[in-house]
TrEMBL record:
Substrates-to-products reaction catalysed: (8S)-8-amino-7-oxononanoate + S-adenosyl-L-methionine = S-adenosyl-4-methylsulfanyl-2-oxobutanoate + (7R,8S)-7,8-diammoniononanoate
Subunit details: Homodimer.
Family stated for the protein in its record: Belongs to the class-III pyridoxal-phosphate-dependent aminotransferase family. BioA subfamily.
Cofactor: pyridoxal 5'-phosphate
SUPFAM superfamilies reported in the protein's UniProt record: PLP-dependent transferases (SSF53383)
The gene coding this protein: bioA
N6-(pyridoxal phosphate)lysine PTM positions: 274
Lineage: Bacteria, Bacillati, Cyanobacteriota, Cyanophyceae, Oscillatoriophycideae
Main location: cytoplasm
EC annotation from Swiss-Prot or TrEMBL: 2.6.1.62
Function text: Catalyzes the transfer of the alpha-amino group from S-adenosyl-L-methionine (SAM) to 7-keto-8-aminopelargonic acid (KAPA) to form 7,8-diaminopelargonic acid (DAPA). It is the only aminotransferase known to utilize SAM as an amino donor.
Protein name per its UniProtKB record: Adenosylmethionine-8-amino-7-oxononanoate aminotransferase
Compartments, record wording: Cytoplasm
């Protein structure tokens, strides 16, 4: 049977999170330059969401590109079960430098698989200790990936519904999201902590998993560090493990290389990806404590972590990640003051009618459209996306949630264009 397609769609491609019957056809990109994408028709768009949150320093950054090319001439790939190599060793040492209480680094392919590794390590560690615990606590609104374990700990709904019978049971606590000027946050935090304490008391818990500071795909829902610190106290009292999913929020996105450090947390496991390689190559990392690593040591084969990926610790990805860290560790790295650049612009935008709940954390700025039916399927965000596209700015709202998460190389003139495009789009939407 011939491939089925519609006008503007390639007959052989299957795009993610996209319904071709109703979505706009994809735009053809021929190049990327810093914070901009160059289209086939010659237009340039500001990539205001860093190409799904991965393009950290901008498209085609020469330092990262040169590091990959140099590594490709030396060693492009080797099985990591039997060999080690310099780029992986250097990267592991540097990652531990930013998460110094975590001593072991396990490489995988992307954010979802990094979360899978964390879950498997957490659950098997209890088995290896002779005290099997199976309960996992997650948070309402969470998103941790699209593989089965990651889906299980993410919020259940439209994305996971076809697989619901196959997902393991997870207990869920409230996520007391807050925003600028929020006067009721302390009451919501107290209620959330009370519910978490109740869940932890019900039965022995293996692990609690969360996205520190910002739930990304769940609507850029932000919480305060003080809440997370009290949460960790409850987890420790229950003897459970704490997993931090920093796939989105790591590597400068929240104004620090480590979101755990900025939040004042010391998790037992951390999942990393997205900005890890500056968006050049797919790679995931799971960081684990030395104590957890010790749970897997022994002469018995069943103590082994039987998990791996063909491209584990791929030398090209490691080279890209090391080059990216060179940029992030520079004293004048752009992530350090991005929040201050956002703040006055966000406050001005939030004064427009039809917007609410402005919030800000590092490079991430977000607000909500006031709509009758908030959620991922709300089409108001798509109207804003199309209007911004006409102004040369690419956004991908999360339903009614508008956000900016640009590359670190974005200059102030480009940042102004992003906010001006959003203001014009919101104003036009309110007039309809």
């Amino acid at each position: 049977m011939a491939p089925q397609t519609t006008a503007g769609w390639h007959p052989h491609l299957w795009h993610p999170y996209t319904q071709p019957a109703t979505a706009d056809p994809p735009l053809r990109v021929v190049a990327g330059h810093g914070a901009e994408l160059e289209l086939e028709d010659g237009r340039r768009l500001i990539d205001a969401i860093s190409s799904w949150w991965v393009t950290l320093h901008g498209h085609g950054h020469p330092l990262v590109a040169e590091a990959i090319a140099d590594q490709a001439r030396r060693l492009e790939q080797v099985i990591f079960a039997n060999f080690s190599h310099g780029p992986a060793e250097r990267l592991a040492e540097r990652l531990v430098g930013h998460w110094p209480w975590l001593e072991r680094v396990f490489f995988s392919d992307d954010g979802s698989t990094a979360v899978e590794v964390c879950l498997k390590v957490a659950l098997q560690s209890w088995v290896n200790r002779g005290e099997p615990r199976q309960r996992v606590v997650a948070f309402e609104g969470a998103y941790h990936g699209d593989t089965f374990g990651a889906m299980a700990v993410g919020a259940r709904g439209l994305f996971s519904a076809p697989f619901e019978p196959l997902l393991f049971e997870v207990a869920r606590a409230p996520w007391p999201a807050t925003w600028l000027g929020d006067q009721a946050v302390e009451a919501r935090e107290a209620a959330a902590l009370t519910e978490l304490e109740r869940l932890l008391a019900q039965e022995p818990t293996a692990a609690v998993i969360l996205e520190p500071l910002v739930q990304g795909a769940g609507g850029m829902a932000m919480v305060r560090p003080a809440f997370l610190q009290r949460l960790e106290g409850l987890v420790r009292q229950a003897g459970a493990l704490l997993i931090c999913d920093e796939v989105l929020v790591g590597f400068g996105r929240v104004g620090a290389v480590s979101a755990s450090v900025r939040a004042g947390l010391r998790p037992d496991l951390v999942a990393l990806s997205k900005g890890l390689t500056a968006g050049f190559l797919p790679m995931g990392v799971s960081l684990a404590s030395g104590a957890l690593y010790g749970d897997f040591l022994g002469n018995q084969p069943n103590r082994t972590l039987f998990h791996g990926h063909s491209f584990t610790a791929n030398p090209l990805g490691c080279a890209a990640a090391n080059a990216s860290l060179d940029l992030l560790e520079h004293p004048e790295a752009a992530h350090r003051d991005f929040e201050a650049r956002h703040r006055p612009r966000l406050r001005a935008l939030a004064k427009l009618p039809g917007l609410q709940h402005p919030r800000l954390c590092g490079t991430i700025a977000a607000l909500d459209l006031q709509v009758d039916r908030p959620g991922y399927l709300n089409q108001a965000g798509q109207q804003v996306r199309r209007a911004c596209l006409e102004q040369g700015v690419f956004l991908r709202p999360l339903g009614h949630v508008l956000y900016l998460l640009p590359p670190l190389c974005l200059d102030n003139a480009q940042l102004d264009r992003c906010y001006e495009a959003l203001a014009a789009a919101v104003t036009a939407l309110a007039a309809t």
